[in-house]
Design goal:
Low-confidence stretches: 23-27
Number of helices: 4
Largest sheet: none
Strand content: under 5%
Number of strands: 0
Radius of gyration: 42 Å
Mean pLDDT: 81
Helix content: over 70%
Distance between the termini: 55 Å
Order of helices and strands: HHHH
């Protein structure tokens, strides 16, 4: 590949310098000393220099593209981690809120359903705990979680 590129560069240089490809001296071709014709070795050195510059530029371009790809990948991974962390935090918050609020909701609903004047909240809590057990204060927790966790997470 390198030889092909060097050959193409040399052909281009020879094409732009008509006296360079000839075996005749430059003065016999009608060129004077003020128009120096580079030798084949000089042209080959120029071609090698151009090839090295081309390789360096291509290497820098590939390295730059690789760094851009890595940065996009890191950004996507950080974004996914951030979403996971936010979703987990929202879910934990919804669960804790439901656990803390459900007993108050149960007491409120029982007071609203009471025929006549409802008893005070403390009396109702003691009555529920005594007759139905302490777990009765969290009746309805499961449907509340089923509604609140997805709604809060998304």
């Amino acid at each position: 590949e390198e030889e092909r590129i060097v050959g193409e560069v040399m052909r281009a240089i020879f094409a732009s310098n008509p006296g360079a490809s000839s075996s005749k001296p430059a003065c016999q071709q009608g060129l004077c000393d003020s128009q120096k014709v580079p030798s084949a070795e000089e042209i080959q050195e120029q071609a090698q220099g151009l090839l090295q510059a081309l390789k360096a530029t291509e290497g820098q371009r590939l390295l730059s593209r690789q760094k851009e790809r890595e940065a996009r990948h890191a950004e996507a991974a950080a974004s996914a981690d951030k979403f996971t962390q936010q979703a987990l935090s929202a879910s934990v918050g919804a669960v804790l809120t439901s656990i803390l609020v459900t007993p108050f909701e149960v007491v409120k609903v029982r007071q609203q359903a009471w025929v006549g004047a409802p008893p005070p909240a403390g009396t109702l809590v003691r009555q529920l705990a005594g007759t139905e057990g302490v777990s009765a204060l969290w009746s309805g927790l499961r449907p509340g979680l089923i509604m609140s966790v997805p709604a809060t997470t998304l």
